[in-house]
Amino acid sequence: MEFKKKQSILSKELQEHYRKHGVSDLEAYIKNKPQQMMCEDASSPTTRFIRLNPRYDVNETLNLLRKELKDGEEVIEVPWLSRDLRFYAVPETFALSRSEAFNSGRIYGMDVSSGAAVAALFHEDHEIHNKLLGIDTCEEHKKGSLEDEDIEMRVLDLCCAPGLKTCAIADLLETRNSRNVHIIGVDISEKRLQLCKNIIKKYHIDHDTSGRKMPRTARSLEDDIENTNESTNEIGCLTKQNTIIQLFHSDGTTFGIRDKRNTDSSLLIFDSRIALDQEVQDWRAGRKRKRMNKSARARESKSLKMVTNILWKSVNADIAGKPTLDSEQSNEMTIPLFDRVLVDAECSSDGAVRHLQQKFSRSKKMTTNSKLTDAQQLEDLVALQKKLIASGFRLLKRGGTMVYSTCSLAEEQNENVVSWLLNEFHELIDLVPVAFNTAGINEVSSCASSQGSSITDGKIKGTVRFHPSTSDDLFGGGFFLAKLRKR
């Protein structure tokens, strides 16, 4: 039924859901255009968030942004999140698609609450002193810190599409960490993975937009693979990066486990080393490809198969040579365990209230959310979330940390899932309490709320809830996160 003036925009179930979670004036926000939504005590419009590409000079990027804004508009640094993530707020009317800074790869469009999940995963300064909360945590809580340089850091982004968190992880570790880093992104949707692949290519591979300097010389990664050191399985490539990004098309609930045919059904669809080698070859030849031709796709496919074979061979050799490995690293595993795991699980997305506005502007129809309001769909969704969080925990090394997050407000998808994991693996797991310091936020935000209304503890002490707002200019959409550590 088409929307009429006196009809409600949200279904009754959604209205009750948002009232329960303290989201007010949502229908007024959805009906109005962004430039009409103002803070109660200010004339500035609501905001959107961007993140700066660290391979470009920060001041140059900020100066370019200021030139693109209208008179009186500002670029404001987000003060409550780690500075090395480089999050800023701009007016919501700022059009990314028409921005030179965006099109040239200098900025990402990314919600700041999503960036909080990355910050919590890697920054110990967001951890609360556990004695203050009366929560016991693992004695080895400092294992796997960014300062350890002895071994490669392995990071898993289990539900990685569209790739913005994957890029944030790579950017953060490249700028803060001297260790070699191996990031693996996994997603079940081939369509979403293609978008993820395109975003990573734009910001980490393409010499026009990534901010990387091209090496003077390059050779084919295929040649490097053929000359791999058999004793170490190391690939020595002249265009090698300290940070490797790989994307797998796979079911996150079973990733890294052999199937009934004693094989791994995961498909490697992207390796940053292969993509960078192709980019360097094209750059040296003066070519600029919008799409790969048939021969380039064939070379990529061959190289990906070679890398996959080396990976599985390395894992099998590692398992065979270490009979005393942790119980979770058994013969069923097809991939080494990870130091850090991010499980940004599929959810009902009801915390992303700004998407409701976009949805209504397109359809002009009453908004529903069956994943949230249909009992069977919600039950199925929660069952999936439990499988995903358990899979992430299974793939985590002892002493490693994991962040579970959703953009839902529902306890069923947040605290209840975390409680289930804590009970299921109570002898192996600790909750790591997390907080974000919003002290002084009013000094830079003309319409910021107190921490009590924007960022609070979840129903489990030490977890974090970001409450969605239609007016706060330095907080993002609704979000939940919990940080966990394997003993």
Description:
- The protein has 487 residues and is of the alpha/beta class.
- It is built from 16 helices and 14 strands.
- It has helices at residues 12-20, 26-31, 58-68, 100-103, 112-122, 130-133, 164-176, 190-204, 221-226, 272-284, 294-321, 353-363, 370-373, 375-394, 415-424, 451-454; strands at 47-52, 76-77, 87-91, 107-109, 153-157, 181-187, 243-249, 267-271, 338-344, 396-406, 429-432, 455-457, 464-466, 479-486.
- The strands form two sheets. Strands 5, 6, 7, 8, 9, 10, 11, 12, 13 and 14 form a ten-stranded mixed beta sheet that branches.
- Helix 7 links the parallel strand 5 and strand 6.
- Helix 14 crosses helix 15.
- The model is unreliable at 34-44, 130-144, 224-240, 320-329 and 442-452 (pLDDT under 50).
Residue share in helix: 25-40%
**Cα-atom radius of gyration:** 23 Å
State the separation between the terminal residues, measured CA to CA: 54 Å
**Major β-sheet, in short?**
10 strands, mixed
Pick out the low-confidence regions. 34-44, 130-144, 224-240, 320-329, 442-452
- Write the H/E string, N to C: HHEHEEHEHHEHEHHEEHHEHHHEHEHEEE
Shape: globular
User: Given the structure, what is the number of helices?
Assistant: 16
Mean pLDDT: 80
Tell me the total number of β-strands.
Answer: 14
**What structural class do you assign from the helix and strand content?**
alpha/beta
Strand content: 15-25%
